[in-house]
Amino acid sequence: MDVVQTLKMKLNYLAIGVVRGNEVILNPVNDFIIQSGDSLIIIK
Q1: Are 27 and 21 spatial neighbours (Cβ–Cβ below 8 Å)?
Q2: Strands 39-43 and 14-20
Q3: Strands of 39-43's sheet in order across
Q4: CB 20, CB 38: distance < 8 Å
Q5: What is the pLDDT of residue 6?
Q6: Cβ(43)–Cβ(13) under 8 Å?
Q7: Which three-class secondary structure state does DSSP give residue 14?
Q8: Would the CA dihedral through 4, 5, 8, 14 be positive or negative?
Q9: CA dist 40 to 1, 8, 12, 14, Å?
Q10: What SS3 class is residue 32?
Q11: 1, pLDDT greater than 70
Q12: Which burial class, exposed, middle or buried, applies to 4 when counting CB atoms under 10 A from its CB (0-12, 13-18, 19+)?
């Protein structure tokens, strides 16, 4: 299970975005790959 799915299924957190460098990726898909240095925007 990947990070985004784990956050949703086990912790009831919803990843609404990822900050990667100067880019903001909104609404990442369930199989989105988190990379080292990424920051997650989550809501609970």
Answers
A1: no
A2: antiparallel
A3: 23-26, 14-20, 39-43
A4: yes
A5: 83
A6: yes
A7: strand
A8: positive
A9: 17, 13, 14, 10
A10: coil
A11: no
A12: buried
Residue type, position 2, single letter: D
Closest CA to 11 of 20, 21, 23, 1: 1
Q: Which two tokens stand for residue 13?
A: 């957190």
Read off the pTM: 0.73
19 is written with which tokens?
């900050």
Question: pLDDT digits over 3-41, tens only?
Answer: 778 888 899 998 899 999 999 999 988 778 889 999 999
Alpha carbons within 13 A on the beta-carbon side of 18? 16
Q: How many CB atoms lie within 10 A of CB 18?
A: 21
